[in-house]
Amino acid sequence: MENVGPLAGIRVVELGIWVAGPSCAAVLGDWGADVVKIEDPRSGDPMRGFIVRSKEDRERRVSPSFTVDNRNKRSVALNLRNPAGLALAIELIDRADVFVSNVRPAPLERLGLDAETLTRKFPRLIYGQMTGYGHVGPERDRAAFDYAAAWARAGIMASLGEPEGPPPGQRPGMVDHPAGLSLAGGIAAALFARSRTGRGQIVRTSLFQMGLWMKAVDLQSTLMGGPLPLPESRKAAVNPLFNPYRTRDGRWIYLIMMQGDRHWPDFCRAVGRDDWADDAALQTMRGRFDRRVEIIAELDAVFASKSFDEWAELLDRDNVFWGVAQTDEEVLADPQTAALEMWGRPDDVPEQTPVLKSPVGFSATPASLRRPTPEAGQHTEEVLLEIGCSWERIAELKEQGAIG
To answer: Exposed, middle or buried: residue 332 (CB in 10 Å: 0-12, 13-18, 19+)?
Structure first.
């Protein structure tokens, strides 16, 4: 597949581990950038070690997280503790348009790979920095995953789940991936600014900031003196028409009618409750709020009386707004997922497991999956030859322990 992505010709160097930093560079790669990932020769990105058994072949091991966040990259194994290895990294960055890292600030400063040092040395460089809690403040160097820095620390966890219940967990990468996408967007904007000014700049975000942004409506409400966002029981939801209900065959339908007054007549007709439609006390949000426990209990029984397919037909017939809670297998089999072509295989690798695509599309400069996930250090010699190293020099660097 020809690379015609919007960032074709842009060179990116990534020093990233786990999810948030690598996911940003993967998106840039999807958009056409040539991405070189620097890895430790001894261990590589630690996410490589998180493997599971394949369901189809129990003897086969797969790494879903590493696969999805490291396509469209070439891997170079450099020992940054070795002066020659560090010098090679700096040479790669010198030739790059963008440097992306989610390594904590202090180690980067010790290596001279921090944002201020590199942007001073290379004025056209776009430096994309992802941290856990932010690049300033007392916790700039605190270790973080999105579970801690965003899901828990930013207030998401405390506002979900049932009242008095334990805090709900999250699934892997749920905040990492939006954070990586946001940093990729910021980098693209900085590249556009550089095309006008000729100057690079530092683009920063953090998992904590992404968590705050995900909670923006609740936090803004609190800033404006609104009610505190507390966990809400589905059995006493503020709006019975914005709540999940279980069908006879065990599937969950989520009603999403925020404008309850507008939808009430149609909804009553769909669920066969003409008596509710005629009840003057239930014509307003306030009236339904006062009787919400009663309404929800009755709706539990109503929805349990029919199958999901039956309800889907009835709700669509009467213009009721709703969604369905799906399993991962159902999501992958969903015709809408297929219509959006949300997965694909890298060029010339038909045997590779399909890879989920990043969610931004371009009509004239399409994103693409061009390279499969690399082995650690797979492209070390290839990349070093591109920057002018001879085979003799590469052999010397290996002997010195500078490269893997």
So the answer is: middle
Residue 356 sits in the same domain as residue 254? no
Task: Give dist(CA 276, CA 8) in Å, integer.
Answer: 59
Q: Encode pLDDT of 355-394 as tens digits.
A: 999 999 999 999 999 999 999 999 999 999 999 999 999 9
Residue 180 predicted with pLDDT over 90: yes
Tokens of 239: 């709006």
- Compute the distance between CA of residue 326 and CA of residue 253 in angstroms, rounded to an integer: 9
CATH number, domain of 96, equals 3.40.50.10540
Where b means 16+ CB within 10 Å and e means fewer, 254-271 reads ebebeebeebbebbbbbb
Q: Which residues, other chains included, contact 156 with Cβ-Cβ below 8 Å and sequence gap of 6+?
A: 150, 170, 211, 214, 215
Phi-psi map region of 9: left, alpha, beta (phi>0 left; psi -120 to 50 alpha): left
Rounded to two decimals, what is the model's pTM?
0.94
Backbone angles phi, psi at 71, to 5 degrees: -70, 165
Q: Residue 170, Cβ neighbours under 10 Å: how many? A: 16
> Alpha carbon of 321 to those of 295, 314, 315, 339: distances in Å?
18, 11, 7, 21
Within-domain flag for 305? yes
Mean pLDDT value across residues 184-206: 98
> 57 lies in which domain range?
11-216+341-400
The pLDDT tens digits of the residues spanning 156-176 come to 999 999 998 898 999 999 999
**Contact, 71 vs 354, CB < 8 A?**
no
Q: CB neighbours of 199 closer than 8 A, spacing ≥ 6?
A: 123, 124, 193
Residue 133 CA: distances (Å) to CA of 43, 66, 204, 323 = 26, 23, 11, 34
Q: How far is it, in rounded angstroms, from Cα 150 to Cα 210?
A: 7
| Sign of CA pseudo-dihedral 372, 375, 376, 379 | negative
